[in-house]
Amino acid sequence: EIVLTQSLGTLSLSPGERATLSCRASQSVGSSYFAWYQQKPGQAPRLLIYGASSRATGIPDRFSGSGSGTDFTLTISRLEPEDFAVYYCQQYGSSPITFGQGTRLEIK
Amino acid sequence: EVQLVESGGGLVQPGRSLRLSCAASGFTFDDYAMHWVRRAPGKGLEWVSGISWNSGTIGYADSVKGRFTISRDNVKNSLYLQMHSLRAEDTALYYCAKAVLYGTSSYFDYWGQGTLVTVSS
What we know:
The complex is a heterodimer of chains A (108) and B (121).
Chain A: E1 4-5, E2 10-13, E3 19-29, E4 34-39, E5 46-50, E6 54-55, E7 63-76, E8 86-91, E9 98-99, E10 103-107
Parallel strand pairs in A: 2-10
Antiparallel strand pairs in A: 1-3, 3-7, 4-5, 4-8, 5-6, 8-9, 8-10
Chain B: E1 3-7, E2 10-12, E3 18-25, E4 34-39, E5 45-51, E6 58-60, E7 68-73, E8 78-83, E9 92-99, E10 108-111, E11 115-119
Parallel strand pairs in B: 2-11
Antiparallel strand pairs in B: 1-3, 3-8, 4-5, 4-9, 5-6, 7-8, 9-10, 9-11
């Protein structure tokens, strides 16, 4: 099983700042089968990025994904108040599907 | 509009059984694989099980293998999760999720709001 580690449990930033969230895989993730989700309290997870760098439908272009192999990054270029949430990474290149433990992005 | 509505959660004693359901609408249900993902209190997301469009491919997390059974009814546009021998560590919010890719390995473009399962005596 591929273990995903999100090194930051919590990231404290201010609106307007740039956020960089990382996720490291214990083994190479094949064909960049990698996704990012946002989850707010009381809401279902929302798909942001798939294929490591493709934005899902309706996702603002301030969200971008990059990386390959074992190291992946979600970047939010300029934080808006609605971006403060928990972010999860996911790999789907190898069974079983696995998620990272999440990074909480909070307002500083 | 895609909608996934879970039901069947509740408080159950350790060792007992529970059946979760997910009613799907707004898309052609039998074109897509479906999955269950859970989030335990204070923890992250954990994939539980997935089933292909025709039930021909099924997968389970090791933590539930042999205790949980996933199934679907493409006539009723519904997904199910039969859970047996429940343990305290199965306590979680269970989400139904629509897969984008075929088979049991995919990312998910739509999720339900979840149904809460609490295993406690």
